[in-house]
Amino acid sequence: MKKLSDLHLFRAFRSLNYTLYFTGRAVSQFGTYMQRVAVVWVIYSLTHSAFLLGVTVFAEQFPSFLFSIPGGVAADRYNQYTIIRITQITSIIQAVLLAILIYTGHTVVWEILTLSVLLGIINAFDVPARQALINDVVADPADLPNALSLTTATANLAQLLGPAAAGIILNVFGAPVCFLANAASFGAVLLSLLLMKLPAAPPRRRSGKNIWAEFAEAFEYLTKTPSIGFVIGMLAVVSLLVLPFATVLPVFARVTFKGNASTFGYILSAVGVGSVIGTIFLASRKPGTQLRKILFCSTIIMGLGLICFSQATNFPLALVFAAVVGIGAVSQFTVCNIIVQSESEPHLRGRVIGILLMAVYGMVPLGSVMVGAISQHLGAPATVLWQGIIGLVLGLAGLRIASYLFRQ
After folding, report:
1. Considering only CA atoms, which of 35, 42, 51, 40 is closest in space to residue 94?
2. What is the 3-state secondary structure (H, E, C) of 84-102?
3. pLDDT tens across 260-300, in order?
4. Spatial distance between the Cα atoms of 241 and 256, rounded to a whole number of angstroms
5. What is the CA radius of gyration of the chain?
6. Cβ contact 192:20 at 8 Å
7. Distance (Å, rounded) from C-alpha 363 to C-alpha 237?
8. Which CATH class is domain 4-196+209-405?
9. Which of 238, 272, 247, 277 minimizes the C-alpha distance to 356?
10. Read out DSSP for 344-402?
11. How far is CA 243 from CA 74, 133, 259, in A?
């Protein structure tokens, strides 16, 4: 009888350490998406403001941008296991505080946003260390792209199931239960780290430079390596102008489709379905596939999906278009991450991942505030329509530019 790891799609599971890593992250990501949906819904229920939805995303993600420089350097300087243990424990504390805040009736917007800022700072150190750790837990380097795709699939499956569960829990039990479930989920990561058996980590290279000098070294590396720098630059533009479409989804749920928290959860889950489909495709691809071509074609697909979703008035049809958006959106970070992890120099990997995160955590929150403000004047459908058009244009332009840059 064949094992799951014997299948080409799941070949990274041949490594026990990666299997443990995958399991712990899968549980944790489920709780993370439950908390994100709950926070957004609580803010919108209190304020009914599309602009404050953008501010909510900004509050969590922009601190990750501001602290991504020390976070990336830390992933190169220090033991990644220790960093992840610290971030998981502090994430538990943040989620419990959020639950206590809502349960005791202190539903003050600035307090919720302050805790979101704290989580953003934690993620600035957690994500570079967690992403770089994948290189250590995968036994065969040839399985690294498959491992990265499967890891993304866990986040997308969580995006599929987490919001749907959060919508039900919000209606039946309330937001505090979502926050406590997220706090408990971080324990799975801590347990997976304890069960891993890896050789002692080699001593870290200490250059003697300060944080800014070390990070400048990574930027200089990207300017001399356009095969990586170009895709990160395009990701930054897409993250600013297109990916923040999720900011106004609560408006679609409540205003366009006359729904509630469950409706919002269904839309996010539909995006998650598309994301899972997209990651299965990426995980099953064969070596030698043109990743950059996949990236820009996915941007075109996402743009077309947003255009159709923005004009849909039938809810089931809108869910189909939301799934199409998810198929295109998932490749934006996943493909860039595979390129960075597979092609960047090992001693610079943590810092390059930090720059990759800056492209997401810096641009998405800024874009979310911008999208929230614009939708206050144009309305959510018109805003998402323009985002789709921009995505379509960027995807087509990316194909042409990439063809020119990498023709040789």
Report:
1. 35
2. HHHHHHHHHHHHHHHHHHH
3. 877 887 888 888 788 878 878 877 766 556 778 888 899 99
4. 22
5. 20
6. yes
7. 7
8. mainly alpha
9. 238
10. S-GGGHHHHHHHHHHHHHTHHHHHHHHHHHHHHHH-HHHHHHHHHHHHHHHHHHHHHHH
11. 28, 26, 23
Q: What mean pLDDT value characterizes the chain?
A: 83
Tokens 């849909």 sit at which residue? 312
Contacts of 101 (CB under 8 A, 6+ apart): 107, 111, 112, 115
Contact 189, 28 (CB under 8 A): yes
Annotated domain spans of the chain: 4-196+209-405
CA distance linking residue 137 with residue 132, whole number of Å: 10
**Contact predicate 350/130, CB 8 Å:** no
If 0-12 CB within 10 Å is exposed, 13-18 middle and 19+ buried, where does residue 387 land?
buried
* Mean local confidence (pLDDT), 313-334: 90
Percent over 70 (pLDDT), the chain: 92
Contacts 24+ apart (CB under 8 A), 224-228: 225/343, 225/344, 226/405, 227/339, 227/343, 227/405, 227/406, 228/339, 228/340, 228/343, 228/344, 228/352
Tokens for 43? 């803010």
- Cβ(73)–Cβ(352) below 8 Å: no
Sign of the CA dihedral running 334, 241, 257, 315: negative
Q: What is the pLDDT of residues 38-86, one digit of tens each?
A: 888 888 888 888 778 778 878 887 788 788 878 878 887 788 888 999 9
Taken as a whole, the chain contains a residue count of 408
For the segment 141-199, what is each residue's pLDDT rounded down to a tens digit? 777 778 887 887 777 777 667 777 888 888 888 888 999 999 999 999 999 988 888 66
d(CA 95, CA 84): 16
73 and 211 in contact (C-beta within 8 Å)? yes
- Residues 6+ positions from 405 with CB-CB distance below 8 Å: 226, 227, 230
Contact between 69 and 128 (Cβ < 8 Å): no
Question: pLDDT at position 353, please?
Answer: 80
Interatomic CA distance for residues 132 and 349, integer angstroms = 7
